[in-house]
Specification:
The chain is 38% helix and 12% strand. By secondary structure, the chain is α/β, with parallel strands linked by helices. It folds into 2 domains: 21-50 and 311-456, Aspartate Aminotransferase, domain 1 (Alpha-Beta Complex), CATH 3.90.1150.10; 58-308, Type I PLP-dependent aspartate aminotransferase-like (Major domain) (Aspartate Aminotransferase, domain 2, 3-Layer(aba) Sandwich), CATH 3.40.640. The strands form 5 sheets. The chain has a 5-stranded mixed beta sheet, with helices on both faces. A 3-stranded antiparallel beta sheet has the order 9-12-11. α3 runs parallel beside α11. The radius of gyration is 22 Å and the shape is globular. Bound molecules: pyridoxal-5'-phosphate. Pyridoxal-5'-phosphate is lined by residues 51, 98-100, 123, 125-126, 181, 185, 214, 216, 254, 256-257, 265.
């Protein structure tokens, strides 16, 4: 069949509240043009993140009824542990309430000041937790990631040569372990190939450096390996995932992504001594090691979700959904990072709004206009998120790229929702020359994108001048 359909149907629905353009104009102004400050109920299509936003399946809800809420040794833990051990191949499984809790605990036991931790690209909370230990998080992305239009199949790969140079320059003794993010979220959700992982491991092993994988989207990465890497087509997603983790000493996982759960995560590894140390510190902040800050029903939902995410029907649909959105946007004149990832499509705001310099926040302009025109919430990943502000001199630096991420919650939206997003983006494209930049009005000292406020540079109606509507959208 040519048509790839959603491999599920709805049993329960969540109504969407519609707003008018003039209401959204007011909502935006009230929120200081910061979409993190907009109430979820005022959003029509919420593509802010794919984290913790999945729709759970009937099997997950059923399993939750079986949740055992005993403080110690609950049955839900053992089901969860056995599922993680089965899929990932590690014997020690430590539940935590989400990915960054895993990071804080793991780095707390394993990283000391002056250490260096390389990765293809560290996710922002991973980097922050490494730096909070006084260590250095080093990104070594492959060179292909720098060309937004290149169709390289594995733009998430780590640069092995750069790794060798790092080890030579700094000494292996400064690297307590290495990491790898699959798929490479901060690098546009691009996958890492099995051969790159094996080569990474080979080099690390010659220096006795262990490898830990940031596994948030391990199933999506395995699907890309199956579809794109030579010789992998006949293997199952499960066996590819198993092979990926056979090269690692352990993994950290945010179950809010490929765990198909709304909350949760874990650390899995084979080193019993290290696991014991992590559990000691887990008890201080997260809870007893058989629940780790989660309720028994959360553990059940994750155990079922990890099985469901390996379904090829599901992964094929998910890839098709991202590609559908990508194709529609590019056909409507909105340039996106190529090839599309699975968990998100990234608009290249710099290429889209060439007349707006980076210092005038083209990504934020696109994000605000998507909301204004269609009630769509996306996430700026550009100068607002990564630019630096010097509070003493007032100097501002800009980000490497100006992207707007349209993240796709798992099993939530249908093809007609995407048709709507594509149509709204088309309205932006038609009137893009009339859009002007934005400036920051207020910013906090750290993680400014969550709470900063903004203002349009030229205001006619309290917001960016509206792009004129094409006749077809006049209704
Ligand atoms: C989301 C994410 C994390 C952090 O997980 P949280 O559950 O949000 O704390 C770490 N690494 C990657 C790659 C992620 O996508």
């Amino acid at each position: 069949m040519k048509t790839i359909i959603e491999p599920f149907r709805s049993k329960m629905v969540e109504p969407i509240k519609f707003t008018t353009r003039s209401q959204r104009m007011q909502i935006l102004a009230d929120a200081g043009y910061n979409l993190f400050q907009v109430k979820a109920e005022d959003v029509i299509i919420d593509l802010l993140t794919d984290s913790g936003t999945a729709a759970m399946s009937s099997e997950q809800w059923a399993a939750m009824m079986r949740g055992d809420e005993s403080y110690a040794g609950c049955a839900s833990y053992y089901r969860f542990r056995d599922k993680v051990a089965d899929i990932f191949g590690f014997s020690q499984v430590i539940p935590v309430h989400q990915g960054r809790a895993a990071e804080r605990l793991f780095f707390g036991c394993f990283v000391k000041p002056g250490d260096i931790v390389p990765s293809n690209t560290h996710f922002d909370t991973t980097r922050a937790n490494i730096e909070a230990r006084g260590a250095q998080a080093v990104d070594l992305p492959c060179v292909e990631v720098q060309s937004p239009d290149s169709d390289h199949p594995f733009k998430g790969n780590i640069d092995i040569q750069a790794l060798q140079e790092l080890i030579k320059a700094e000494g292996a003794h400064r690297i307590p372990f290495a990491m790898l993010t699959i798929t490479n979220n901060a690098g546009g959700g691009q996958p890492v190939s099995l051969s790159n992982i094996a080569e990474y491991r080979r080099v690390l092993r010659t220096h006795n450096i262990p490898l830990y994988v940031d596994a948030a989207r391990f199933a999506e990465n395995a699907y890309f390996i199956q579809r794109r890497e030579a010789g992998q087509m006949t293997k199952s997603i499960r066996s590819i995932a198993r092979e990926v983790f056979s090269h690692a000493d352990g993994c950290l996982m945010s179950a809010k992504k490929d765990g198909m759960a709304n909350m949760g995560g874990f650390i899995a590894l084979n080193d019993e001594q290290l696991a014991a140390k992590i559990k000691e510190s887990l008890i201080l902040t997260e809870g007893f090691p058989t629940y780790g800050g989660l309720s028994g029903r959360d553990l059940e939902a994750i155990a079922v979700g990890l099985e469901e995410v390996l379904s090829e029907d599901y992964l094929q649909y998910r890839e098709a959904a991202a590609r559908y959105l990508y194709n529609g946007l590019t056909e409507n004149g909105v340039p996106c990072i190529s090839p599309p990832a699975m968990h998100a499509v990234y608009i290249n705001a710099q290429a889209f709004l060439r007349h707006i310099p980076q210092s005038q926040l083209p990504g934020q302009v696109v994000a605000c206009q998507l909301y204004l025109e269609g009630g769509i919430r996306a996430c700026e990943i550009g100068t607002v998120m990564f630019g630096q502000h010097d509070p003493d001199t007032g100097a501002e630096s800009v980000a490497r790229q100006e992207l707007v991420r349209l993240a796709i919650p798992r099993r939530v939206y249908t093809q007609s929702h995407f048709d709507y997003v594509i149509e709204v983006a088309g309205i932006l494209a038609q009137g893009k020359e009339e859009l002007s930049g934005m400036r920051i009005v207020y910013q906090p000292p750290a993680l400014r994108h969550f709470t900063a406020t903004f203002a349009p540079l030229t205001t006619t109606k309290g917001c960016n001048p509206a792009p004129r509507r094409p006749a077809s959208a006049a209704v």
